[in-house]
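User: Run a structure prediction on this.
Assistant: Running it now.
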Amino acid sequence: MTDQTLIDAPVDDLEYWRNPTGIEVPRDRLRFLYIPDAAEHHMVSWLAKRFFAYQRLHAGTHKQITKMIMITMGALLPGVLLQDYIAHGSSGDMPMVEFGTFGVKCYIGPGQPLDKPEIVQPLSIDIRGHTIGIVEDLIDLGLTAQFVRNILCSEQYGALDAVILAPYRKSKSAALDAEIITFGVVPHDTWIITPRERVETMMKRVPYWAAQGASREECIENLVHIGYARYLIDEWFDIAWGRTQSA
């Protein structure tokens, strides 16, 4: 994929993004899916519409969601976008939804779970007696979502129930003991690059490629092929490449 094909990507074609295929690059076992800003907005808009459908289905019951918890850091971008749609796009007969955050770390890296999940940021709002939505950016092995649901619905925090919302889930995601609203599915070997983690992915993958024998030029070509905009490469690649020299 080049800069031009990235510009021409069908960001308004939801079906394209529902089951996308990642890009292969040399010296890597993973595929990479670069999510344009417009596609991220469109997917979260879809989630908001399904959220409203859920709320209407459960009107007048305790199953309506009145609190929404964004799991930091990954869920902050889809969560903030979702808040915009829900706070300003709901009809007057729907309950107000309060958004908060909860920081949990379950993975060292992609597919590398910790022995025990860690709470790294306390819950920012009171959820006792409420049905909550848990916002994730991706449901992979399901460890984070299941851990968060279990602890927030425990006596310690007192949520009545939880619904999980995420733009994507992996094709081999674990079964979760909760209702799930997700937009699309990606293969298990695909690394999703959301708008919030483009530099992070560059800093992690360029040293990996270099360690596999890739030259500076090959690393840049990998990024271009994945879909990175030229300004990101021009402004941040040298830092990533510098880390290959100190590794």
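The chain has two domains: 3-33+197-246, 39-186.
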